[in-house]
Design goal:
The chain contains ten helices and 15 strands. By secondary structure, the protein is an alpha/beta fold. The strands form four sheets. A six-stranded mixed beta sheet has the order 6-5-15-11-7-8. Strands 1, 4, 12, 13 and 14 form a five-stranded mixed beta sheet that branches. Strand 13 and strand 14 form a beta hairpin.
């Protein structure tokens, strides 16, 4: 009898490749929309200077021999509170001893937990801030019959005017706050529509490069729109229960948000929002810590991740939101 393939070779797991659908960290943008501020305490207050007082003209002509006019502004305080979120993955000794080296249980658990932390922060950001009723202005995308001031044509329609819409949003933020809307946050499907929009195609031709087409394209579009950065919420979330058919959706939805973000956080520095990270608990400059420790009663090693933060809107006037901006 001739030897068969299976009789001369026993299949073993490849050591050079395995499949794990880990999303790239750059698909998650929450920590880049709101600057991260490390704080020592779980809760505290920060001061807010009255915008109206600073922008009201109070200087007057001074007559000879008289006092100068006295000026004033109000100072209030706002509170933050950093909740703690956690998840663990146990690696039983029996599983570790029997695992093929390619499975790398420690690496796999760490990657899994890290993605879970990113998913948590991103979904929190989307549910809290990518919605109506949060920012200074809400605009709805419609298929037809747009009404000035409340709706615009959806950007997947070449008859729409996304450049004009975004510039109008920048003017609205500047008028309401004196600050420039400089960061545009887009759902993945919104970005896909803008890239192919006639209003922008001719302006960005020839700007992509083979080595990093997406990055260069975003930089080119940001330059056209006079923005510091365009952030695309490319991460997906599976909302199905375990062992059920996947139900994936982009976390950012079909939405867009223009905000003012400072070059760096600091005293008397306005921002649409800040992420307060409780470094006094997790240490470091990011709101996440991961550790491994022994669970002897379970005969297992436990890898645990904790995240502690408060993503807080600090000024509604510094944001402009579009809902269902593509079909």
């Amino acid at each position: 009898m001739r030897p068969t393939q299976s009789s001369v070779h026993v299949n073993t797991p490849l050591t050079v490749i395995s499949l794990a659908y880990i999303q790239a960290s750059e698909e998650f943008v929450a920590q880049r929309v709101f600057p991260v501020i490390t704080v020592e305490k779980q809760s505290d207050v920060y001061y807010e200077f009255d915008r109206a007082g600073f922008n009201r003209l109070q200087m007057q002509k001074r007559a000879p021999g008289t006092e100068s006019t006295g000026g004033a502004y109000k100072v209030s305080n706002e509170a933050y509170f950093c909740d703690v979120f956690a998840l663990h993955k146990d690696i039983p000794d029996q599983i570790r001893a029997n695992a093929d080296s390619v499975l790398g249980p420690d690496i796999g658990a760490t990657e899994f937990l890290s993605q879970q932390a990113l998913l948590k922060m991103e979904t929190d950001f989307a549910s809290d801030f990518m919605k109506t009723g949060v920012w200074g202005k809400d605009i709805s995308g419609v298929a037809s019959g747009a009404v000035a001031g409340t709706s615009v044509l959806q950007w997947n329609d070449n008859a729409s005017s996304p450049v004009e819409n975004i510039r109008a949003a920048k003017v609205a933020i500047k008028k309401a706050s004196g600050q420039r809307g400089n960061v545009l946050v887009l759902g993945e499907e919104v970005w896909a529509a803008l890239v192919d929009h006639a209003d922008l195609v001719d302006r960005i031709k020839g700007t992509a490069s083979p080595s990093s087409p997406a990055i260069v394209l975003r930089q080119a579009m940001a330059a056209i729109l006079e923005l510091d950065e365009i952030l695309v919420m490319g991460a997906i979330q599976n909302s199905a229960d375990e062992d059920q058919t996947e139900s994936n959706a982009f976390i950012g939805g079909k939405k867009a948000l223009l905000v003012h973000r400072p070059a760096r956080p600091g005293l008397m520095t306005p921002s649409a929002g800040y992420t307060f990270a409780w470094s006094g608990y997790v240490g470091g400059t990011l709101p996440v810590a991961i550790e491994r420790f022994r669970m002897q009663p379970l005969k297992s090693d436990r890898i645990e991740i904790e995240a502690t933060y408060d993503q807080k809107k600090t000024s509604s006037a510094l944001g402009y939101f579009w809902d269902t901006i593509v079909a």
